[in-house]
Amino acid sequence: MRSWLTAPIFDDETQTHQAYMLHVILWALIIIPIPYGILSIIVDPQSWVNTLVEVVVGEAINIFLMVLLRRGHVRLAAILQSLAFWSFFTVVAVTGSGVRSPAYLLGYVVVIGISGLILGARGSIGITILSLISGVGMLWAEQAGWIVVESVSPFNFYIPSLVLFPVSAILQNLAFNSIQRALNRLRVNEERYRIISSMASDYMFFTQLDTGEKLQVSWVAGAFELITGYTKEEYEASGGWLAHLHPDDREQDQRDMVQLYQNKPVTTEIRTHHRDGSLRWVRVYAQPVWDDKAGKLAGIYGAVQDITERKTAEEALWKRDSILEAVTFSAEQFLKSTDLDANINNVLARLGAAMQVTHAYIFVSQQGPDGNWLNSMRYEWAAPGYPLELDNPEFQNSPMDIKGFEHYSELLNAGEPYIGSYSCFSAAEKEYLSQWGIKAILDMPIHVNGQRWGIFGFDDVEMEREWSQPEVEALRIASNLIGVAIARAEADKEIRRLNATLEQRVHERTAQLEAANAELESFSYSVSHDLRAPLRAVKSFSQILRQEYAENLPEEGHDLLARVIIAAGEMGEKIDGLLALSRLSQGRVNRIRLNLSQMAYEIVDTLQAASPKPNLSLDLQDGIQVQADPTLLRTMLENLLGNAWKYTSQTDRPMIQLGLLDDQSQPVYYIRDNGVGFDMQYADKLFGLFQRLHRDDEFPGHGIGLATVNRIIHRHNGKIWAESAPGQGATFYFTLGKERDE
User: Fold this and answer.
1) How far is Cα 160 from Cα 158, in angstroms, rounded to an integer?
2) Which residues lie below 8 Å from residue 555, measured CB to CB, with a gap of 6+?
3) SS3 readout for 506-527
4) What's the confidence (pLDDT) of residue 199?
5) Which of 176, 298, 309, 393 suits 448 as a labelling partner, its CA being 20 to 30 A distant?
6) In Å, how far from its chain's centre is CA 520?
7) The dihedral formed by the CA atoms of 618, 624, 627 and 632, expressed in degrees to the nearest 10
8) DSSP 8-class letter at 653
């Protein structure tokens, strides 16, 4: 009954307008006869039969016209309604006063107006012509005596109708045209809106409850076909909104409907299936239309927006962040723990879950006897509900070079990933992978120390998928991490192996050092006692021979004995130098803070007292501080300054300098003189034991001093070098290095 109280709506605005006007008129004609019949029976009870017949006939006609209207025959119902009105007033006029009757002068005007509203210009013109012709007929009937009325001339009533009826029709046409122009403007605006909406990513809708209390879509506008792939009629025929919802989102839709039935607006994001089978994310804005009288939902209007691209981008970002988080976790695990197997299993689980695959795995590769690669699964993770294949013999020592799978081998051998989905597989690949139901696969080689070690990969047996760039890069990073972790594990294993023998090697080395020290002590003892004793005997016996048998020796004998005594003394001094040099390699270097300048002044004072140089030009830089062993440092300075003192002995104005070069990466000290100098082509012999660049008759010495200096500098982790030229003096540079464990 509810639908009969509302005018039907059609796609054509003009038809909808006509239906609305006719709907109002019919309901008026249905309601008015009821009180009219009751009143007529009360006033004239004798005529109740005639009155009842009139009311029943009139109601039957009106209900019949209403049925036509509800079935969409708007124009037919409007024509029949106009003719029924016209016939009614014609009958009333003919049976009454003819053209003098109100049914003629007023009733026809009403009919003309109603015809214009429900039929337009042609309808009002047609009824106007019929009404004027009917008036002519009534005039002829009165002249013929068929209508007998004692009154003024009927022409006095007909002539005004010639003006009244056309004017009424004209006014009605003007009103109708005005309404039509408004409808046309509305149609143009709606067409513009439809065009604009069709280019947008959303559509509007209105649904209302039918007689069975089911929601039916009354109209849609906008990008409906773009979002659904259907026309409105096709969409409804294929099951409508519920039939196209994603199964997992139907509970959400039910919760939303509960909100709407409680007169609460809804904004929700939900998935629907497009006609082409793809899944679309949409955002729905739904507003309930509430029937206040009935206190229940009457309909829903709202909008649907396609948000697939945004959702896809959000999912890609979410997946990328999840993958990056998993990769970061993997890196942290490898840094924190040395348990390689546990770390790799954690990596597989984290990355597999983040990438939403069904399996993650690692194969170890090794070359077979024929040189081809064989792969054996060593690690595996499977999503909940999927079986593990780690113990499957088919995945142990399986050949990599499979017929039809050559592209796979080529990519991995070249260090590149293999990226595949079912639709892109070759027939051979499909046949091979279908054994395990694989629909998508992503594999990456693992390299350890630049050598092929294995394969890291994912596969999916649920759906075909396109592997994104973040997924490929995540696998690449993870495979590199695993390669580094394996290399570190192998290095740790080697270190543990070496450490296992380190104690033995240290023991052996210590024993060797102890033996060497014992030999050195034995050597020192031999030099001190075994060599000194005969040397002292040679020197003593030579002196006795020279003193007691001097008269019996010729001059040449005296000269030879003198030479023997001198040689024995020099040999003793060399032995003393060797002993001092050997002792330099023993003991620990005890570094303390020393004033190098002050120590140099003390040594020069000692040299000046032993061998004065009245014309000496001494330039010792003040305040030079060093970290060194005091005993060793003094020995070193004594040798360097002693050499400078000795080799300037033949110089008229000797000069000795001590300074610091402060523009170097580490302190460089130097001692410079203006003595005889030396040729730099012999500099490699300068710090050798018993190596001398000058004759003994020019400058006496034993060739041990600079060797001693070099040993002391070495024990301080430093360096020493010299610059010189014959006759231009010499400069010795040295560093003292940094303290380290001896």
Assistant:
1) 6
2) none
3) HHHHHHHHHHHHHHHHHHHHHH
4) 47
5) 393
6) 69
7) 10
8) S
DSSP string, 403-433: TT-HHHHHHHHTT--EEEEGGGS-HHHHHHH
Q: Would you call 730 exposed, middle or buried from its count of C-beta atoms within 10 A (0-12, 13-18, 19+)?
A: buried
DSSP 189: H
Distant-in-sequence, close-in-space partners of 648: CB < 8 Å, separation ≥ 6: 613, 654, 655, 656, 673, 674, 675, 729
Q: How much of the chain is in helix, strand and coil states, percent to nearest 5? A: 60, 15, 25
Nearest by Cα to 670 from 619, 714, 612, 740: 619
Q: How far apart are CA 186 and CA 384, in angstroms?
A: 59
Own/partner long-range contacts of 62-68 (Cβ < 8 Å, ≥24 apart): 62/26, 62/29, 62/30, 63/30, 65/22, 65/26, 66/4, 66/23, 66/26, 66/27, 66/30
pLDDT in tens, 621-632: 998 999 888 888
Helix (H, G, I), strand (E, B) or coil at 668: strand
What one-character-per-residue DSSP string does 675-740 give?
S----GGGGGGTTSTT--SS-TTTS---S-HHHHHHHHHHHTT--EEEEE-TTS-EEEEE------
Question: DSSP per residue over 122-178, as a string?
Answer: HHHHHHHHHHHHHHHHHHHHHHTTSS---SS-THHHHHHHHHHHHHHHHHHHHHHHH
How many other C-beta atoms can be found within 10 angstroms of the C-beta atom of residue 376? 13
| Spatial contact of 536 and 565, defined as CB atoms under 8 Å apart | no
pLDDT of residue 203: 84
Closest CA relative to residue 54, chosen from 73, 29, 72, 76? 29
At 196-211, the pLDDT tens digits run 454 455 788 888 877 6
In Å, what is the CA distance from 364 to each residue of 326, 376, 522, 730?
Answer: 22, 5, 60, 67
At 2 the pLDDT is 45
- % of the chain residues with pLDDT over 90: 6
Helix (H, G, I), strand (E, B) or coil at 73: coil
Mean pLDDT in residue range 518-536: 59
| 607, 673 contact by CB (below 8 A) | no
CA-closest candidate to residue 41, choices 87, 107, 33, 57: 33
End-to-end CA distance of the chain: 110
β-partners of residue 458 are 360, 442
Q: Name the DSSP letter for residue 553.
A: S
- Cα(157)–Cα(137) distance, integer angstroms: 14
Q: If DSSP codes are grouped into helix, strand and coil, which group holds residue 486?
A: helix
Helix (H) or strand (E) holding 454: strand 451-460
**Residues 135/104, Cβ–Cβ less than 8 Å:** yes
Name 362's bridge partners: 379, 456
Sheet strand arrangement including 668-673:
617-620, 655-661, 668-673, 730-734, 720-724
Q: Which of 686, 656, 678, 657 is nearest to 725 (CA)?
A: 678
Whole-angstrom Cα distance, residue 710 to residue 720? Answer: 7
- At 74 the pLDDT is 79
What is the rounded CA–CA span in Å between residue 274 and residue 259? Answer: 26
Strand residue runs (E) in 521-624 = 592-595, 617-620
Token readout for 501 is 């023998």
Three-state secondary structure call for residue 209: strand
